[in-house]
Design goal:
Layout lengths: L1 H28 L5 E6 L1 E23 L5 E6 L6 E2 L4 E5 L2 H36 L5 H33 L2 E3 L4 E3 L9 E2 L6 E13 L3 H11 L17 E4 L11 E9 L6 E7 L11 E18 L4 E3 L2 E7 L5 E12 L2 E6 L6 E5 L11 E4 L10 E2 L11
Parallel strand pairs: 1-19
Antiparallel strand pairs: 1-18, 2-9, 2-13, 2-20, 3-5, 3-8, 4-7, 5-6, 7-9, 9-12, 10-13, 11-12, 13-17, 14-15, 15-16, 15-18, 16-17
Helix pairs in contact: 2-3
Length: about 400
């Protein structure tokens, strides 16, 4: 009996030791809480923008056409480079125009000689007619010849001026300062008044065309006043309300203002044509580019913002992970608003003081304990302060 009791006690102790050992192994195998980076939500006033797709165009686009017909002798300018007003672009073979000019100049000299002779004759006949040495008819004929010779001289001068202009027009010059485009006429081509040889565009300032809807236009007027007030050429463009978003997502550093408003709303599209002008130092922007035009229409006061990377999308809904004071994560569905830089306005679902996960979100499930560390880099699309903490309220879920 004593031996049996001892054996039973030994087995019991062995079983307890085995159970204790298994518990330690199980406890050692439990994974540590996932490390995440958190940041406090940001609260600030956020401007609400209206945005429209726009196309850039030169403020002036001059199609270069010849005033005469002839063969292109030379291309003088460099395509894509800045040219100044009066700078030559092409040369047309001038030989026939030089010959015409020389001929009209010779004709003028001949008519001037005839006029001088007619004046001399008329001057000599006038005293003779008074003395009745010649008839009045002879004096009248002499004066008629003088007037005819004078008219011939004026006509010859006009013809010579026309020939001189034709000769000048063999050098085709730029009428404006701007960027010269690709040549559409080559050396040896026969060109005339209908030929577009190239285009010169003035791109500083540069024009952008866009078409807001009727409702957006009315919101603009309510915010900034009548568009017509901004059409003055004397106003500083930089003080205008327009901003330009480029194709790479960057914001053009210069502001612009409206310079044109359409006469009517398009009944088919419900939009109205507008054009803005932007300073373009260095001619960075070029005609034909597409960009977004935006203008502030309102300001959302004390908006709650989170980094865009803290928001995940699942089946059309947006979610963020909020870390509580007990380091437990809660997945919350939020309603998103407009974007401000790399921040997203949250309309519903968050409150001031919430900490949200900005890194490691994919490893977190609702109710999981996490190991949070403060995000090293400040988040935000501009100057902003962390939202002021309000007393915590119980939230369901």
């Amino acid at each position: 009996m004593l031996r049996a009791a001892r054996s039973c006690a030994f087995l019991t102790l062995a079983a307890l030791a085995a159970a204790t050992g298994c518990g330690k192994k199980e406890e050692a195998a439990a994974p540590p809480p996932p490390a995440v980076e958190v940041a406090a939500v940001v609260q600030k006033d956020v401007p609400i923008y209206g945005e429209w797709i726009g196309s850039l165009d030169g403020s002036v686009n001059a199609e270069i056409r010849p005033q005469i017909e002839g063969y292109v002798l030379k291309q003088v300018y460099r395509e894509g480079f800045v040219v100044r007003a009066g700078e030559p672009l092409f040369e047309i073979d001038p030989r026939q125009f030089q010959a015409s000019y020389d001929q009209t100049r010779a004709s003028l000299s001949q008519y001037e000689a005839t006029l001088a002779n007619a004046k001399t004759t008329a001057a000599r006949y006038r005293p003779l007619a008074k003395e009745k040495a010649i008839s009045q008819q002879e004096l009248d004929d002499a004066e008629t010849k003088e007037r005819t010779a004078s008219a011939n001289v004026e006509s010859a001068k006009a013809a010579m001026e026309k020939a001189r202009l034709d000769l000048e027009w063999t050098k085709i010059v730029s009428p404006i300062d701007g960027i010269a485009g690709v040549a559409k006429s080559q050396v040896g081509d026969l060109v005339n008044r209908l030929t577009v040889m190239t285009t010169v565009s003035q791109v500083d300032p540069i024009k952008v065309n866009f078409s807001p809807s009727e409702q957006e236009y009315l919101e603009w007027v309510a915010k900034h006043g009548s568009v017509e007030k901004t059409l003055s050429a004397n106003e500083d463009l930089e003080k205008g309300p327009l901003q330009l978003m480029l194709a790479d997502g960057s914001v053009f550093p210069h502001h612009g203002r409206a310079i044109l408003i359409g006469r009517e709303v398009d009944a088919k599209t419900g939009t109205i044509q507008l054009a803005g002008a932007f300073p373009n130092p260095g001619n960075i922007l070029r005609p034909g580019q597409y960009a977004k035009v935006r203008v502030s229409l309102d300001v959302k006061k004390n908006a709650i913002l989170v980094p865009q990377r803290a928001v995940s999308e699942l089946q059309g809904s947006y979610q963020v992970a909020v870390v509580g004071s007990d380091n437990k994560a809660t997945i919350k569905v939020v309603k998103t608003g407009p974007v401000d830089g790399n921040m997203w306005v949250i309309e519903e679902g968050l409150k001031p003081g919430d900490r949200i996960i900005v890194e490691g979100l994919q490893r977190v499930r609702s109710g999981m304990t996490v190991n949070p560390t403060q995000a090293s880099a400040p988040e935000g699309g501009g100057k902003a302060e962390p939202a002021k903490t309000e007393p915590a309220k119980e939230t369901k879920g």
